[in-house]
Specification:
With 131 residues, the protein is mainly beta. It is built from 1 helix and 8 strands. The chain binds zinc ion.
């Protein structure tokens, strides 16, 4: 069992965008900064004109780790967690599990594409190799 995030006004677009296959990132309409984790007020210019927009869902592996420890009963190991620099959202990195690939094949600099895992009303972003 995986703990689910609580949906709030600021994070609902991020956690439910996968229902439409979209990775939704908060952007400030005033200064154009991407804001992640999402917030209702821009931390750069304090504007409340924050809106969520779909990004391409691709990015580049900044770093990653391979987990070999089953932290919960039934957890399948090994698996990789990747921190990915998002295309179209400067400065935003999204950490998520890598699926559909041998964890040993993940490398810094690889291009990744988002996919989603749905549990209840949450769509968890996951990364798969883009090639
Ligand atoms: Zn701003």
């Amino acid at each position: 069992m995986r703990p689910l995030p609580e949906l709030t006004p600021e994070n609902t677009a991020f956690w439910t965008g996968g229902a439409q296959g979209k990775l939704m990132i908060a952007f400030c309409a005033n200064c154009s900064d991407a804001i992640h984790p999402p917030q209702l007020i821009c931390p750069n210019c304090w504007s409340e004109a924050v809106e969520s927009r779909a990004v391409s869902g691709t990015g580049t592996v900044y770093t990653y780790t391979v987990n070999h420890q089953p932290w919960a009963p039934g957890m399948q190991v090994p698996f990789a967690l990747a921190v990915v620099d998002l295309d179209g959202a400067p400065g935003v990195r999204v950490t998520a599990e890598v699926v559909g690939a041998d964890p040993e094949h993940v490398a810094i600099g690889q291009t990744m594409r988002v996919t989603f895992a749905n549990i209840d009303d949450i769509w968890f972003p996951q990364w798969e190799l883009a090639e």
